[in-house]
Amino acid sequence: MSRPTATAMDYTSQLKTAIARACPSTALPNHIGLITGRVLHNIERLVSLHLENPIDFQLPVPEDLRQAPELIHAITGHMAHLRKVNDIPTALRPIPPHVYDRKASTKLRKCNEKHARTVQVHFKRCVLEVLGGLFASWDPVKTQQFNKGAERALNRTVWGIYPGVNVALKAGEGDWAKWLEEECEKLNWNLGKREMWKLCDGR
């Protein structure tokens, strides 16, 4: 028997509870950055996988989120709700590599992008609702640690210094990965120039 699809209130409440459990106020900022970044990093693949299966499909928990399976269960509920609303009860099969169907491929890609964007934005909103107060209480050092964790999860990059402004608060519903990449590049480029000037000045 197929399990009933979640209502908007159900999956939102479930997601907020999962975020609070996976990212308690006692956790290290770097850990919270890693968890939230890993969820965002996995969403596109998870959405595509769900659409390739029946509406009652339960998403598998990615290896890097084994310690927070409730987050993936909440995303499963969100996808079931979206598919019910958008009338997509059956699996959307991927186009085989040997078949050229530009119209079908474009339709499938846009469907994946639309659902991934919706799930990402909803997750970011819930993160701010649950953790916004905690973020605001952090000093710049803790904020940098959070950004370091998020950057590592999203872009797989290690920098010398990180922004002292929280990506979740600054980028909001926008692209966290892009914001972090641009800010880290700018900060570290400026740091490199300052160090070069010190060497040139003999200081």
Tell me about this structure.
With 203 residues, the chain is mostly helical. It has one domain. It contains 7 helices and no strands. It has helices at residues 8-22, 29-51, 69-85, 102-137, 140-155, 167-170, 176-201. Helix 1 (8-22) runs antiparallel to helix 3, helix 2 packs antiparallel against helix 4 and helix 2 runs parallel beside helix 5. It is globular.
Task: Describe how the helices and strands are arranged.
Blueprint lengths: L7 H15 L6 H23 L17 H17 L16 H36 L2 H16 L11 H4 L5 H26 L2
- Main beta sheet: none
| Count of separate DSSP helical elements | 7
Structural class: mainly alpha
What is Rg?
20 Å
The average pLDDT value, as a whole number, equals 88
Tell me, what's the shape?
globular
* SSE string, helices as H and strands as E: HHHHHHH
Pick out the low-confidence regions: 1-5, 194-203
- Counting copies of identical and different chains, the oligomeric state is single chain
| Termini gap | 73 Å
The helicity comes to: 55-70%
- Proportion of strand residues: under 5%
Q: Could you say how many structural domains there are in total? A: 1
Number of strands: 0
